[in-house]
């Protein structure tokens, strides 16, 4: 689902690019009134985001219940980015900075849209991998979605002995968000919505998963969500919370001496 959601985001952005208002000043934003623009600050955000993503993937791969953790996390990612694709398709606003480069508009044909998708898909929206040229991916910040889902994955699925690292990740995420705003890549509302969407989806899924294993998912008000069926499907073979231990170990394909040495 995550791959499909990301494709939908790229498709929505490639289509919306031609509809973004040009020649208009950025919308009023309280943050922009208080702080100056620092264009290079986005590099700090993306380095932090890449670091946190790698660490979250390492936790998923090394968790003793890696396949259960993987489908939980990637479902949350897919759902969050699907919501983002819908949002950026529904509303187009001027870019947050007059210094933002937007490539010229195209002819709007299907072939031109798919060509944009082909050119930008592999970079995953990271400007360090490919300079930005498409505009319109506002309203919900994709960087914020990634930052918070990776942070929550690390905090939720690592042993208690690594709790202090979770606080460090919180601080990193906060710094990254500040840098997004300083670089004026998003409006403040985009950041807020990114935080709200990512945390509510992650927490709602795990709350429903706990209810499922306790046998009272139908009495949980969150079960009215249209995607509750996915929780029942993904959790059907997962151990209950009291047996789900956060133990990190090397995958079975690694040599046994490394697994014994580095297991936590």
From TrEMBL:
GO MF, one annotated term: ceramide cholinephosphotransferase activity
Domain Sphingomyelin synthase-like: residue ranges: 135-207
Keywords annotated in UniProt: Lipid metabolism, Membrane, Sphingolipid metabolism, Transferase, Transmembrane, Transmembrane helix
InterPro entries on file: Sphingomyelin_synth-like, Sphingomyelin_synth-like_dom
UniProt-annotated location(s): Membrane
Membrane topology reported for the UniProt record: Multi-pass membrane protein
Residues that span the membrane, as ranges: 40-61, 73-91, 164-183
Top-rank taxon, per record: Eukaryota
The keyword Transmembrane helix appears for this protein: yes
Family recorded in the similarity comment: Belongs to the sphingomyelin synthase family.
Protein name per UniProt: Sphingomyelin synthase-like domain-containing protein
Species of the source: Panagrolaimus superbus
């Amino acid at each position: 689902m995550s791959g499909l959601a990301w494709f939908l985001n790229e498709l929505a952005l490639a289509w919306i690019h031609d509809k973004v208002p040009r020649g208009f000043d950025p919308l009023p934003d309280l943050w922009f009134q208080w702080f100056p623009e620092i264009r290079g600050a986005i590099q700090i955000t993306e380095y932090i985001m890449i670091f946190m993503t790698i660490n979250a993937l390492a936790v998923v791969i090394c968790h003793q219940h890696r396949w259960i953790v993987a489908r939980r996390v990637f479902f949350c990612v897919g759902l969050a980015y699907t919501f983002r694709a819908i949002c950026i398709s529904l509303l187009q606003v001027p870019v947050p900075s007059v210094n933002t480069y937007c490539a010229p508009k195209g002819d709007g044909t299907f072939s031109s849209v798919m060509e944009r998708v082909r050119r930008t898909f592999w970079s995953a929206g990271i400007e360090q991998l490919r300079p930005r040229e498409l505009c319109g991916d506002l309203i919900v910040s994709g960087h914020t979605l990634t930052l918070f889902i990776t942070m929550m994955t690390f905090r939720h699925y690592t042993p208690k002995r690594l709790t202090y690292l979770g606080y460090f990740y919180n601080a990193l995420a906060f710094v990254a968000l500040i840098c997004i705003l300083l670089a004026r890549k998003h409006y403040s509302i985009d950041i807020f919505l990114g935080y709200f969407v990512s945390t509510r989806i992650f927490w709602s899924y795990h709350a429903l998963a706990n209810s499922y294993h306790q046998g009272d998912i139908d009495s949980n008000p969150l079960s009215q969500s249209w995607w509750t069926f996915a929780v029942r499907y993904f959790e059907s073979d997962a151990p209950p919370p009291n047996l789900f231990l956060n133990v990190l170990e090397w995958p079975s394909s690694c040599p046994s001496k490394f697994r014994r040495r580095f297991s936590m």
